[in-house]
Amino acid sequence: MQNLDPKHTTCFLTAVQAGTVRAAAEQLGIEPSTVSRNLSALETAMAVPLLERGRTGVRPTEAGTLLIAFLRQQEGALDLLQSEFDALRNMKRGKVTIAVGEGFVGDLFDSALNSFAQQYPDITLALTVGSTEHVVDQVTSERAHLGLAYNVARDPQIRVETAKTQPLVALVRKGGRFDDTALDLTMLAKMPCAIPPKSFGIGAMITAVEAKHSVRLRAVVETGAISALKAFVRNDMGYTILPRFVVEGELSDGILSAHPISSSGFAEGVSSLVRREGRKLPQAANLVLKHLRRMSAFR
Fold first, then answer.
1. With the C-alpha atoms ordered 134, 135, 139, 143, is the resulting torsion angle positive or negative?
2. Residue 83: how many other CB atoms lie within 10 Å
3. Element (H, E) at 243
4. Domain map of the chain by residue range?
């Protein structure tokens, strides 16, 4: 096997992530024909097909999946080596990627990143925001050093650094038309609500509670955007279901009102700070890890 050309591997990883050669070319700022040539050259060098090409795009073959894992490990090893070089020179710098569940963003900035950036101005923090599934995928594939997610399923590839039980509560507009209602599960099923989809940890918990109690919530809006869920409630359109730490500011300012829900399923939610099991983190990521433990989600 020949040495891997970085231009070829960059095109390969980008094409897999983007899903099509054209989308990869747009991301890389080159012609689609150049991407195709680089992919063909990589397959020739590896002497094995790496991509399945179809009308809807490209996806990795079994060999391609192995190569992706190897390249991710290689990136992590180089990152770690650079970190150790920096440590020898007593320098605290680098780039740390954090996969963040949508509901953690506000708490992340308020409780951790502000102080961290002041203390370590030469460390760059790259954030990727999405669902619980997204966070787990980013961490297990080693595209992210650390992850913040809600209701993470047990996974041998995931190591939980810290976790805290954070029950789900029903949130309504303070003083609004739903604020004086006793919000048990039966009543919630009759009221309009906005909730996250099942790919989010919160949405998965709601789905499980619905199945357990044979009820169906009246979701008039389904979205993973926390800002949209808050706007729905602020406009007194109904309620949403979130952990308290996601809306600490709105509760303190008297904008929203939180009501406990009398269902054991909603009391079992857990906020987790995770990393890939067995991965050695660079110095910069370990520094970030200490600050993330201070978040309201883990108090």
1. positive
2. 23
3. strand 239-243
4. 6-66, 92-163+271-298, 168-268
Domain 168-268 has CATH 3.40.190.290: yes
Find the helix or strand (DSSP H, E) in which 258 lies.
strand 256-260
pLDDT tens-digit series, residues 178-198: 997 777 888 899 999 999 999
Question: pLDDT, tens digit, for every residue of 13-26?
Answer: 999 989 999 999 99
Question: Fold match between 92-163+271-298 and 168-268?
Answer: yes
| Domain 6-66 CATH (choose: 1.10.10.10, 3.40.50.12780, 3.40.50.261, 1.25.40.10) | 1.10.10.10
Q: Which two tokens stand for residue 285?
A: 């990521």
Alpha-carbon distance of 87 to 224, in angstroms, equals: 39
Entry pTM: 0.72
Dihedral (Cα; 275, 113, 28, 18), 10-degree rounding: 50
CA dist list (Å): 68 to 75, 76, 151, 178: 11, 12, 27, 50
Buried residues in 258-281 as b, exposed as e (16+ CB within 10 A) = bbebebebbeebbbbbbbbeebeb
Beta strands at 239-243 and 192-195: parallel, antiparallel or unpaired = parallel
Sequence-ordered list of residues with C-beta below 8 angstroms from that of 148, at least 6 positions apart, any chain = 98, 99, 100, 101, 104, 108, 135, 271, 272, 273, 274, 292, 295, 297
* Closest C-alpha to 135, from 115, 117, 155: 155
* CATH number 3.40.190.10 given to 92-163+271-298: yes
Instruction: Name residues whose C-beta falls within 8 Å of residue 76's C-beta, 6 or more positions apart in sequence.
Output: 142, 279
How far is CA 244 from each of CA 211, 212, 239, 272, 297, rounded to the nearest angstrom? 24, 23, 14, 15, 9
